[in-house]
Design a protein that fits this description.
The chain is an alpha/beta fold. Helices cover 31% and strands 27% of the residues. The protein contains ten helices and 14 strands.
Amino acid sequence: MIIFNTLDEIANIKSTVVALGNFDGVHKGHQELIKRTVKTAEAASLKSAIFTFSNHPKNVNSGELVVKNILYFDEKARIIESLGVDYMFNIPFDEHIRSMEAIDFIDQVLIGKFKMKQAYCGFNYRFGHMAKGTPEVLMHEGIERGFGIHVLEPFQIDGNLVSSTFIRNLIAEGKVDQCPKYMGRNYAIGGEVVVGNKIGRTIGFPTSNLIIDESMVTPPNGVYVTQCIYNGIKYPSVTNVGVKPTIGDYKKNVETHIFNFNKELYGKTIRVEFLEKTRDERKFDSVEELSKQITKDCIMAKAYHRNKGTAI
């Protein structure tokens, strides 16, 4: 898959079938849209393409971080590529794009840059200045300009409309166990392991600490059954998300205890997949009480992993 990060980079491409949307979660609804795009492109001997913004339009319009990311860009690109896409147009939503009228956007970007012959979009897709562009506008202009438009009906699972907003709410409510149903994968946080206060090590539960990325949606404070991925290998683990109130005054972070693991991970990159929340974070009267509770948390997490057939 070839990734274009600016409109100016796009040159010498072949005609395309383009999937239009933010694709910020690449959830099952997005995946269905992308699969249809790829299939249509292959049947028509065209290139399949994804058009998305590298930043969220709502954040640009509001001037602050109102919509947080579900996926890191590299993960988003990897998932999209795995679906067979040829081109990814990952364009910044800037003032030029924001002020462009819907018709100009079609002419200058979709046709002029993307060489679009057909497009797929969701029923609620919006584009152009003041979001005046709609699927109906695309269909009307398609007749005039000779391109085809396919509008995907609302995609539901168990009666729920699958959307990035719905998934963000699941994560924010700690319902991480429901994410695979709608995303097709576990919700995860990744990053470089940093040095913590090392309290866990002194009480027999060494942890790998990740700093919270403020641009990413994160689950509420609490304890979670997780699995930690390091060098492509998954390890059963238990994770605390929070501020460690028993120990002192800390910023929210993610600390993971990996079972039967003795490698040094400082400075290494890991990924923590969240499987189920087991309890809220709370302040204990002493480190001893905290240690006893962590023991219980580990027992519960190990039982979960065993029930799922994971070797510990």
